[in-house]
Write a structure and sequence with these properties.
It is a single chain. The chain is mainly alpha-helical. The chain is globular and about 50 Å long. The protein has 7 helices and no strands. It has one domain. Helix content is 85%, strand content 0%. 29% of the residues are buried.
Length: 224
């Protein structure tokens, strides 16, 4: 009986490892495709000089597409809505990037933000993959922190407080870095078994990390 139990446990462990590896592979494959698609949408938006849709339309579009993605995460429609969500976010990014490119040293600011985002994401992901450290304890803190930062960002926008806006950007750099650690850990430890939702979480982390770095670097460049 002991031998049979050990074999059963080993089979389960192997099945779990295979399932986790599949989620990891599918997540990073889909993430790569959505990043490329979002970059294309941002490039088209910038090239056509499309206006930013505004806060209300952006929030409705984002949360609406996020709801649909979550609702259909276990079907093919979920993947379609992931591309819809990331494409929409790319479209909203186009006018923002155009604004920074129009600044003195704007190209350097954008490229530095892109490089910084890539370095942070790859570095944190590699750290979790290598050490296999469990960051599930950060879940509650990140949820509260993101909510507070989001509300503070709205306040900075409505009351035109650039100092608070910069503080929020700095908060988002830290929070999105934490979210990358948390979600990557969640994937490799089996806490996240749906690669569609894993992709969305990592994409949103990268998107917010990039825009936050862009604002911080843009402010620093203007003050030089």
């Amino acid at each position: 009986m002991n031998t049979q139990a050990q074999v059963t446990t080993l089979d389960r462990a192997q099945a779990g490892a295979l399932s986790t590896n599949k989620v990891i592979r599918n997540t990073y494959m889909l993430l790569s495709m959505t990043l490329a698609f979002s970059a294309l949408a941002a490039g088209v938006s910038a090239a056509l000089k499309l206006p930013h849709p505004g806060l209300i339309v952006t929030l409705i579009g984002y949360f609406g597409l996020l709801f649909l993605t979550t609702r259909f995460r276990n079907s093919g429609l979920g993947i379609a809505f992931v591309f819809g969500l990331t494409g929409f976010m790319g479209y909203t990014l186009g006018p923002i990037v155009s604004h920074y490119l129009a600044m003195p040293n704007g190209s350097q600011v954008v490229m530095t933000a892109m490089g910084g985002t890539a370095a942070i994401f790859l570095g944190l992901s590699a750290y979790v993959m290598t050490t296999r450290k469990n960051f599930s304890f950060m879940g509650g803190f990140l949820t509260v922190g993101i909510l507070v930062a989001f509300l503070a960002g709205l306040g900075a926008m409505f009351f035109e407080m650039p100092g608070l806006s910069l503080a929020v950007s700095a908060m988002f750099v830290l929070l999105m870095s934490g979210l990358i650690l948390y979600e990557t850990s969640n994937i490799i430890h089996g806490g996240e078994t749906n690669y569609v939702m894993a992709t969305v979480t990592l994409f949103v982390s990268i998107f917010n990390l990039f825009t936050s770095l862009l604002q911080l670097l843009g402010f620093a460049s203007n003050n030089d």
